[in-house]
Specification:
Shape: globular
Mean pLDDT: 95
Strand order of the largest sheet: 6-7-8-3-9-10
Order of helices and strands: EEEHEEHEHHHHEHEHEEHH
Structural class: alpha/beta
Strand content: 25-35%
CATH topology of one domain: Rossmann fold
Length: about 250
């Protein structure tokens, strides 16, 4: 498998404070990488470096490099709008638009220039089927998305993300606000989606990281302490600090 994403000595500053320091890691295509570590350790900051969401925060800067398919996303001429099309994001709190279920997905397609009614309908259906939502909502597509349950809203947001056919999906604690049944559906969905996408998920739930990811990266105080295949991280990590975190000695 080839590397889809590669960070080299990536450092990100809020003002004079380095939130992540000299992070180097790579993510192969069609795999799931979980980012674990205590609150404030840099997981979400790293995630947002990938699609340059941190750009909108004043008084920040980045050093080092991050590439997708070998192209530096921080090159001055890199197309950030194109980057955000290639790299979709699902947030901790589901954020459906105050529109119909159908329009939540169709909206992004129209912004991307798709006008054909039948093509839009086809993509909406396919996206909802991909997230196992179609059977639950097919008879209420014109109803407000805000009437869905929390778990359904989060799957709708994932459907909305994949409708525009990104290559990478970033997930920032996508199941932290959900009940166990909805969480299981999201986890099963992640396993299905990795056939077509490269996925990076931030999670506080170590059992979730163990269940859904191929590799796990442990962050602490802005440093990448260790990245390894998930099974190794959870059974025989290279670093004592990783073991102490996983066994609950701190964090």
């Amino acid at each position: 498998m080839t590397d889809k994403i590669s960070a080299e000595n990536l450092t990100f500053y809020y003002g004079s404070t380095a939130a992540i320091k000299n992070v180097s890691l790579s993510v192969r295509s069609n795999t799931v990488l979980a980012l674990i570590g205590p609150s404030g350790c840099g997981k979400s900051t790293f995630l947002r470096c990938i699609n340059r969401m941190n750009d909108i925060i004043p008084n920040t800067r980045v050093e080092g490099n991050l590439t997708i398919d070998g192209e530096s996303v921080y090159h001055p001429k890199y197309n950030v709008t194109g980057l955000r099309r290639r790299v979709g994001m699902v947030f901790q709190k589901s954020n459906p638009f105050p529109k119909s279920i159908f329009e939540n997905i169709a909206y992004g397609l129209r912004i991307n220039g798709i006008r054909d009614k039948y093509e839009i309908e086809s993509i909406v259906e396919k996206s909802l089927k991909s997230t196992a939502l179609w059977d639950e909502v097919k008879n209420r597509l014109e109803k407000s998305a805000l009437g869905l349950s929390g778990g359904q809203q989060q799957r709708l947001c994932i459907a909305r993300t994949i409708a525009v056919q990104p290559e990478v999906i970033l997930m920032d604690e996508p199941a932290s606000a959900l009940d166990p049944i909805s969480t299981q559906k999201i986890e099963e969905l992640i396993q299905d989606l990795k056939r077509n996408y490269t996925i990076i998920i931030v999670t506080h739930n170590m059992q979730q990281a163990a269940r859904v990811s191929d590799e796990t990266a442990f962050f602490y105080m802005g440093d990448l302490i260790e990245i390894n295949p998930t099974e190794k991280i959870f059974t025989r990590p290279d670093r004592e600090m990783t073991e102490n975190y996983i066994t609950g000695k701190f964090g």
